[in-house]
Amino acid sequence: MSLPSSGSPSLKSGPSLSEQLITDMTTWRRHLHQFPECGFEVNLTADFIAEKLESFGIQVERNVGKSGLVGILRSGDSDASIGLRADMDALHIHEQNTFAHCSKHDGKMHACGHDGHSAMLLGAACYLAQCPSFNGTVYFIFQPDEEHGCGAQAMIDDGLFERFSIDEVYGIHNFPGLAEGELMVRPGSLMASESGFEISIKGVGGHAALPHQGIDPMVVGAQVILALQTVVSRNLSAISETAVVSATEFITDGTVNVIPTQVTIKGDCRCFTEATLARIEESMARIVAGICQAAGASHTFTFTNTFYPTVNAKQQTVYAVEAARKVLGTDNVNAECEPLTISEDFSSMLRVKPGCYVLLGNGTESIGGCALHNPKYDFNDRILPLGARYWIQLVNDRLGDAMVN
């Protein structure tokens, strides 16, 4: 079913949250921060979230995509629906903070704010369960293993969009360096893909004093690295195809007086459309094969895509901007931000369903201002009610007009 338009944006307003709910969200967030879990091993986190959702009277489906869960909240008689997604996993980082809610799991840390994302969505779920002024179904999606780029696809492969009738899907991420109370987004490509490559070149090693007796894979590898720089400059449009190709590792089995037999080149690629991604892979494969054949060396080439480009649907971005402006004020919402070369596996969900991913300011000062994936990072609890209010406004906008159906 098609969801209705939510109308034109208004001045800063939106739903108000009780002080108790704001306090509860902070408590939940700090609890999650103390007990970080990584990858798909987020069982304690999922248990905590499921128990909270069930205490709100929300139906919960567990083990979707291994350890993911989906909360289901219905109101009224419309079959319109919306999906709201938060990630649950942490990073393998040893936290260097000393506050009371510091990680109790050595070597693991919520250094990306997924604890905050989960707490914001829990807050919205609590509010909507108590004040169901919408007509339709809200699906609260709590996803594992975002950091490795596998969790969203695992939930999709496990029937996320077949088992649950989700019309549109939305996500949110905190963004250090952007002032709290501000939000940025753009239609189309918001964030880049992330792909890794590995090139193994096999030559004929030998004595460093007698290079003519073999095939030096070091020289071949050096030519390959230089030639890879032409993928962007000579194979892609300088106007419409922004991309980065970086060789980051060069590994050999040689030593000071030994020409190696084999070298391995590893690296990373970023771009903003799947068409560009395919062109990069094809160009790299052709370049590597040609140089190795010319030198008489053999090779293998592996290109692994971990994150697709995050591409926001045009109309769903309009809805997200309208909801954000109602909550944060028109001047605090940048609806045409520059694209970012970071990556996000919510992109996999946007390949299946129309939706929008937004970035909410985590602050520019010491509280929440530290960069993501830094051992001194912490989520800014002051933005918890902003994120929850955005979710609530979006649900009411998208499902509110369904009352007339």
TrEMBL record:
Any Pfam family the entry gives: M20_dimer
The keyword NADP belongs to this UniProt entry's keyword annotation: no
UniProt keyword annotations, A-Z: Hydrolase
Domain called Peptidase M20 dimerisation: residue spans: 196-289
InterPro entries given in the database record: Amidohydrolase, Bact_exopeptidase_dim_dom, Peptidase_M20, Peptidase_M20_dimer
Domain of life: Bacteria
Keyword Hydrolase attached: yes
Annotated CDD domains: M20_Acy1-like (cd05666)
Protein name, per record: M20 family metallopeptidase
UniProt source species: Enterovibrio gelatinilyticus
